[in-house]
């Protein structure tokens, strides 16, 4: 009986609750009155390559860290072994290196090319 309840929580109730809570938090944050919202600059100055790379690396690392914590938690809650959790985290790390990093690099290169063309016009 306990295994069934644990499985139900791990596979259905837990993930649904956490996603719902995240969506509600985003909606509450977005619904602030306009006076409380910070003012954004009309145009942001272009980032140097070093600043851009630093932002991309911190975004990828932060995203992987959040994913790793959630994956380990839900797989542990589902009764998976430590070896399986380690393999899952390694697979995502490889995916990040093979897909996410090249994607960010390509978008940065395209953005730099577009900015250079707009300056010439």
Taking all Cα atoms into account, the compactness measure Rg is 20 Å
Number of strands: 0
Give the total of domains. 2
The largest sheet, given as strand count, sense and whether it forms a barrel, is:
none
Structural class: mainly alpha
| Average of pLDDT | 77
The percentage of residues in β strands lies in under 5%
Instruction: List the secondary-structure elements in sequence, H or E.
Output: HHH
Give the overall form.
flat
What's the multimeric state? single chain
Could you give a quick summary of the protein structure above?
The chain is an all-alpha fold. The protein has 2 domains: 1-34; 47-121. The protein is built from 3 helices and no strands.
């Amino acid at each position: 009986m306990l295994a069934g309840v644990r499985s139900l929580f791990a596979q259905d109730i837990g993930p649904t609750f956490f996603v719902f809570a995240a969506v509600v938090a985003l909606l509450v944050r977005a619904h602030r009155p306009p006076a409380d919202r910070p003012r954004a600059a009309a145009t942001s100055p272009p980032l140097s390559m070093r600043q851009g790379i630093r932002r991309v690396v911190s975004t990828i690392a932060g995203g992987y860290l959040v994913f790793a914590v959630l994956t380990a938690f839900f797989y542990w809650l589902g009764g998976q072994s430590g070896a399986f959790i380690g393999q899952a985290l390694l697979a995502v790390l490889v995916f990040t290196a093979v897909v996410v990093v090249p994607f960010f690099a390509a978008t940065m290169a395209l953005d730099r090319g577009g900015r250079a063309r707009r300056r010439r016009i």
